[in-house]
Amino acid sequence: MSNERLIYLPLGGAGEIGMNAYVYGYGAPGKERLMLVDLGVAFPDMDGSPGVDLIVPDIDWLVDNVDRLDGIIITHAHEDHIGGLAHLWPQLKKPVYTRKFTAAIGRLKFEEAGLPQDAIHTVEARPAVVQIGPFAVQFMPVSHSIPESAMLVIDTPAGRVIHTADFKRDPTPIVGEGWDDAAMAALAAEGPVKAVMCDSTNVFSPLPGRSESTLAEPIAELIRAQPGMVVATTFASNVARLKTLAEAGVAADRTICLLGRAMRRMVTTAQETGVLTGFPRTVSPEEAIELPRRNLMLIVTGSQGERRAASAALSRGKYLGIELKEGDTFLFSSKTIPGNERDVLKIVNALSEKGIEIVDDNNGKYHVSGHANRPDLEAVHRLFLPDMLIPMHGEHRHLREHTRLAHEAGLASTVATNGTMLDISGDVPVVVERIQTGRVYVDGTALVGAMDGVVRDRIRMALNGMVMVTVILDEQDEPLGEAWVELMGLAATGLGDRPLAETMEQELTEFLEGAGGKVLSDDDKLDEALKRIVRQVAMEEIGKKPEVRVVISRLATE
Amino acid sequence: MSNERLIYLPLGGAGEIGMNAYVYGYGAPGKERLMLVDLGVAFPDMDGSPGVDLIVPDIDWLVDNVDRLDGIIITHAHEDHIGGLAHLWPQLKKPVYTRKFTAAIGRLKFEEAGLPQDAIHTVEARPAVVQIGPFAVQFMPVSHSIPESAMLVIDTPAGRVIHTADFKRDPTPIVGEGWDDAAMAALAAEGPVKAVMCDSTNVFSPLPGRSESTLAEPIAELIRAQPGMVVATTFASNVARLKTLAEAGVAADRTICLLGRAMRRMVTTAQETGVLTGFPRTVSPEEAIELPRRNLMLIVTGSQGERRAASAALSRGKYLGIELKEGDTFLFSSKTIPGNERDVLKIVNALSEKGIEIVDDNNGKYHVSGHANRPDLEAVHRLFLPDMLIPMHGEHRHLREHTRLAHEAGLASTVATNGTMLDISGDVPVVVERIQTGRVYVDGTALVGAMDGVVRDRIRMALNGMVMVTVILDEQDEPLGEAWVELMGLAATGLGDRPLAETMEQELTEFLEGAGGKVLSDDDKLDEALKRIVRQVAMEEIGKKPEVRVVISRLATE
């Protein structure tokens, strides 16, 4: 037995917020049986990943060792935990275990992707146990900003590990199971915990988290005071918030209309799985436009400024027949995620131009976070008093701060970012290996490695513009006709308003006429010379160094 | 006289934070003599303006009416007020009036751009008067986050206008003239004010602004407590903050080293113009590395995460021989401007990985804003009690909120965004014309209209990738050789790992072989057909619709 070990290996989520993917293993070194917890996505941005649809973790290591993988657990249905599953499962093809609401969401994704829905197994909450290889796993309900997040209680031959998943300590979460102090105390009383792997997202929030239930009254009061239509936006998956908003609307004599496919799907799935009950009656957009504005409330997608979501569409103009106007009120029952500020403010300003009243979260009056704040994390440290606390789900700064917190509580702790394999068999975590990890882009239907250069080329074209040169040579290496230049993303004219393409063509043609056979017969030399000329002209004429592609066509005898 | 009017026309800054440019005019309609106040830049971003160097206002209207323009005033040396001057002055060629520090900064810019430095005239503060056409202008010193911001007192035949410029009500701003209540009261007592054009940046900040002088003690205390090197970053132009930081460092037994060209230039210019005195002795990076870490303090550029600034360089590794390490402290004596969060967090996380202690503004303990907050704006409304208050410098949401504030104070007010010409001769503002305005990109050495499509093409290439097709036809419209495809920014392989370019070439060549003379002889038809095939293959193979450029070469008889 002393030859076997318990390992922990984050492949995503440790060093970033997003694309969670954590591997646990038990067995002889290099022969551990493996279990994957979560397989999420991160979201692209124009700065670093233009044109990309989604970002998933690089799971090459897991694919190389797939014969040792016994199963996949999804802790909850947020995209940063489940979003990569349909894209990467075909490389793993192992059973997926999760609770019923999350399973329903997962099966919808599998259906769309043409994958077998029966690969997703519904499990019951603790005390039910799922055996995945050497791991006996219980799903302990915790509150979060989506129904049914599950803290994993993982019993292994080397001891018990608690994987908190995303959670907050909310005894009254409106929808789904709350944080149950007594049940948690009972769990803690069952015996020693070797390690807690713990959510770090809100480690910099100094005050205890507030309950979802604190929002109902302020929101109802706000809505009652509005003279026109009320539009509220929040995350589509925050089913509890949708209920709070809808009930507040009904209390203010308003009929509810949900806009946005993702939101309707979440509500339907939550209702079908029995997670959500008592949700007020909703009407279609067609019915909504027949109602007096002061009796209508829209709940819409797009709280982060997403360009294709309902919020953005409504800020631009009429959407599904509905148009906002002066006297209406728009409530952001949400916080802007860092990086989305510009998109959100674009919507705010567009609404402002229409004369709409805009209400933000008002320092938490109309929004609470779904993650455990610093004092809540400290409470969890004290509750389980594990041998070690390993921070997960956070940028480096979050993980480091969380480690510090653990040390203050007297717990062993270390920052383990993506690719860091820890041996957690003993009393303290020991780094045993560094695995090559990274990001993979879902780009259309293709998977592209972040380091493949494809997206780097896009960024270069966007920053520098593009010049395409065509040259035709005959079999004696003599130029046929003149060089041809196409510009993309570059100023059309340079100094003295000369057309830039013509200036380039002239210089290139002059060069070709004077060039010797040594250059003309050598594709590499010719390519290099032509690129140099193009860059030189561009720098002189418009002060830029564009990307250049040269196509040299050599016509052979027929 | 009743035929003459006083007009106000924002060309930039009204509907955005940045690129301030405001026109005043007096005279018969359409024949007003004009004066321009400020000519600033806005900063590009990858989302909307990739590869662009700077954004300046579209001043076509002013250029069309340049014979009526009598002069240009610059209120202060922030880039969003002076940054466009060197780029656009060649189209205006009118005298520039500003105070000495700002004039020195302006002359440095003119020198670099090869423009005549004597076009910039240094003016004295009130009671000195500068006559610009029909406008008698006094420069009233106000406090801001750069030395020498000036509120303009503009006397016109139609009455007095106050143009606040960027300001805060700080009686003790450390460097430069403070807000002087007595002097302001004297100004207000001089007589009625027709209109106040007022900074709106901080209209959503509910508490009164705090003085720059409140920072010295907390920052000194912080620095004294640090065991290693201290690095502090703030805006290079915030000379007062640089002094506060440097003095705090000296008080903690540290020698100061300034890193970043912009910062050294600001300090030197402020010293040369007599605006800054008593700045502690600084050392070069070469001298700095010889000092014990706990006796060294760096003050560096890059508080907004700018990739080429000193902060970013230090977060990546050694910079000018200096390397940060565990035990050092990095202070952001600044606030992150919306949109820069991702770049700033990248630096924070890189520093976190090095084990550096990171300190942010700590809710204002280590940073104060340079703009008047809501209660300060209200105080200015009450001070001057103008007929009307026109909000300027702000996004639409700021302007609108500021208008609301003015209405609460019983003042006439309206939102006038860029291009809105107001007649302010009467008691209330009247919109008399809408001028075509917009944004112009400084792109390398070229000026490119935001609507020209150049940058749109860059964004498309970045989002969709690019395919370049080359086809050669002989004089009988017969294809010579096969179609040639180059991919840029696209996955190299499609379904079943087939090379995407080859699949496209195969389809294109097949099409060319089967195409009739009607298509082959018509460039437009052929271009369209080839593009369609490329897009179709791309969609099938990788699920994307790329940008396509086709080059058809027709070889003529020699």
Automatic annotation (TrEMBL), chains A, B:
Gene3D superfamilies: 3.10.20.580, Metallo-hydrolase/oxidoreductase (3.40.50.10710), Ribonuclease Z/Hydroxyacylglutathione hydrolase-like (3.60.15.10). Pfam families: Lactamase_B, RMMBL, RNase_J_b_CASP, RNase_J_C. It comes from Fuscibacter oryzae. Residues 18-207 form the Metallo-beta-lactamase domain. Keywords: Exonuclease, Hydrolase, Metal-binding, Nuclease, RNA-binding, Zinc. One of its GO terms (molecular function) is RNA binding. This is Ribonuclease J.
